Amino acid sequence: MSDKSVLLVDDEVQILKMMSKVLVHKGFSVTCAESAEEALDAVEKERFRMAFIDLNLSEMNGIELGHRIRQKDDEIALYAMSGYADAGKREACLENGFNGFYEKPVSMYDILALLG
Fold first, then answer.
1. C-alpha to C-alpha distance for 98 and 22, rounded to whole angstroms
2. How far lies 52's CA from each of 33, 95, 113, in Å?
3. Enclosing H/E stretch for 75
4. Bridge partners of 29?
5. Average pLDDT estimate for 1-15
6. Is 86 within 8 Å of 97 (Cβ atoms)?
C-alpha cells in the first residue's frame, strides 16, 4: 500500500473527474469506482490508504459499502461524502466506522489538508 493511494467511489462521474484531477496533480495514486461493485473489485486487487465514498450509491448505500471494504482491509481510512448532509447522517457514519464525513460539494482544500 502506498501512502498516496486513494479510492474514490461516486456514481457522479463529474465528481470523480474533479477530485481525481486534483489528487493526481498533487502526486496521489487514484482509483475511481462508479459503483459499489467496482469499489469492491478494486479493494480486492489493491490496498488503499483511504477511500472517499458517496453515501447515495444506486445499488448499495455507502455505509454498507464501508462495512464491506472494512472487512477486506481493517486499516483503510473511510470518509463519507453526501450532498444530503444532516447531523444524523454524519453521526451514523462515525458510529459505523467511518473516520470522517464531507458534505458535497466537497472542498478539495479540506481533502488536501487531510491528506497532508
1. 23
2. 10, 17, 14
3. none
4. 5
5. 93
6. no
d(CA 86, CA 76): 24
C-alpha cell at 24: 493526481
The rounded distance, in Å, linking the Cα atoms of 54 and 2 is 23
Determine the Cα–Cα distance for residues 37 and 24; give it in Å rounded to an integer: 23
Rounded Cα gap, residues 57 and 9, in angstroms: 9
Cα–Cα distance, 35 to 7 (Å, whole number) = 12
* CA 22 – CA 65 distance, rounded (Å): 24
Beta bridge partners, 100, equal: 79
Amino acid identity of residue 53, one-letter, is I
Reported pTM? 0.95
- What digits encode the pLDDT tens for the residues 58-108? 899 999 999 999 999 999 999 999 988 788 889 999 999 999 999 999 999
Distance CA 67, CA 21 (A): 27
Q: Are 75 and 33 in contact (CB under 8 A)?
A: no
Could you tell me if 111 and 52 are in contact, meaning their C-beta atoms sit under 8 angstroms apart? yes
